Amino acid sequence: MSSQGPQSAAIGKNAVLAGARVLLTRPGRQAEGIAARISAAGGMALSLPMLEIEPLRQHEDIERIKAGILALDQFDIAIFISTNAANLGLEWIRQYWPQMPVGLSAYAVGPGTAAILREEPWPVYCSDEGVTSEHLLALAGLQSVKGKRIALFRGQGGRELLADTLRERGARVDYIEVYRRRVPRYERREVLGMMENEGINVLVLSSQQILESFVQLLKPDDGKNASLDPAQDKEQKALLSLQQQLRVIVPSRRVLETARAAGFVHVTDAGGADDDAIFASLLRIRPETESP
Predict the structure, then answer these.
(1) pLDDT surpasses 70 at 76
(2) Exposure string (b/e) for 202-213, b if CB count within 10 Å is 16 or more?
């Protein structure tokens, strides 16, 4: 395991989450808040980041971002698809705009992202129904957007649903990409061994890409015959046990369906990826994670 591997959180005295041994997969410091809450509630949390978020620093990327930020007064709407997009986007905006451009409103995918955007004095809209692009697109303010110009803050790559749908509705959508995602490298055998040794019984997968990265990490090596390799056969059995026994928490129905298709049996839709949603889900499944 690399130096970015799991770090144990201290166990608190409150026993409301006694028996919960949780593996968090968010990028680095983003797991600190929920890890502290789990610890304070008597559970145990380990962090195994399945994504790293890196601000774009290449000259051509910076020039593209700067051009978009300087033109914000020509936009009607700014959409932020994640807390990373909100944090990094606001850093850029504050460099060039002492006050928010007049007439610019913000839309957030998820309440955590909305909370960050509300640090500034502009109207911020977020769905109360869910945390997906589909929920955002259902908001009244994004229905009649013909002729409007929309800045979409995000990382490099990702789903095109938001931009495609808004363009179909007649809007002009420009991406302002402020970060890139990188998948850390871990050894499959070490991760499986760690999860077994630590008695992990809850897995938090807070995005579609994190789920896909985790599944890819645990995917059996191609071209090997497990029956001829005792070590691999043991790993296969450990993986099957995890899929059948782990309580998995995901942020949306879409990710839930992907997790089930990947073989996980006990999957809970938290209805969001923020700390409050994850913690509430932990409380709901807590009776199933209690030690005998």
Answers:
(1) yes
(2) bbbbbbbbbbbb
